[in-house]
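RECORD TYPE: inverse folding
INPUT: structure tokens
STRUCTURE:
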């Protein structure tokens, strides 16, 4: 789920407030089998409710009563179910499976998304500065008070995702920042980081040396 930026996954019941469904005729198949009754069938399909469409998707048959009293039973070869999302959701359907996303952005989700964008920026700067993948770094971020508070909340995540041994967050309104000498820097436009103009600076951290092993005869 993390790879897809999805917070939680749950299986929906057939009748869900997130979805609405309708049926669409497969014209070629219907015309071949029900040529004489084509128009009454098309008219009857327009009256199929969302619940009936979902029931058809689960059961695999749809029985219609035509104006002349005759009944016809249709299958997925002749009729398809089109699922669509209610307001606030996004849906996609393939091979009979429907996936629904809750598209509501809460302040918490927006904060997490902004922090994720920041880590991508830092890692892109690492690559631009020709740092090795395993190199640890010292990171300095200069931004507004709002983003500074968010970064401090997710500091452990930022350090882990960017191999930052230290993460220093400075507020731009505190005055001109003192960036580390020789740092690789990136000016990030507000539009690219949730509306927060930001400066990122990184330096390579000194490699840690292994502790000397105690001698076998030592106590």
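DESIGNED SEQUENCE:
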């Amino acid at each position: 789920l993390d790879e897809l930026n999805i917070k939680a996954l749950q299986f929906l019941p057939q009748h869900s407030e997130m979805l609405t469904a309708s049926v669409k005729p497969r014209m070629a198949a219907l015309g071949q089998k029900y040529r004489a009754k084509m128009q009454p069938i098309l008219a009857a399909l327009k009256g199929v409710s969302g619940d009936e469409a979902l029931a058809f998707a689960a059961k695999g048959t749809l029985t219609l009563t035509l104006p002349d009293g005759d009944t016809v039973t249709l299958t997925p070869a002749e009729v398809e179910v089109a699922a669509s999302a209610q307001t606030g959701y996004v849906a996609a359907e393939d091979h009979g499976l429907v996936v629904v996303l809750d598209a509501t952005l809460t302040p918490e989700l927006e904060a997490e998304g902004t922090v994720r964008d920041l880590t991508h920026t830092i890692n892109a700067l690492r690559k631009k500065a020709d740092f090795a993948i395993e190199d640890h770094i010292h990171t300095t971020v200069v931004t507004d008070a709002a983003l500074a508070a968010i970064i401090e909340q997710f500091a452990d995540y930022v350090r882990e995702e960017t191999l930052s041994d230290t993460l220093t967050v400075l507020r731009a309104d505190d005055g001109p920042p003192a960036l580390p000498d020789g740092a690789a820097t990136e000016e990030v436009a507000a539009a690219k980081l949730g509306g927060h103009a930001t400066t990122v600076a990184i330096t390579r951290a000194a490699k840690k040396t292994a502790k000397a092993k105690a001698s076998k005869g030592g106590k």
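NOTES: Confidence is low (pLDDT under 50) at residues 212-217.
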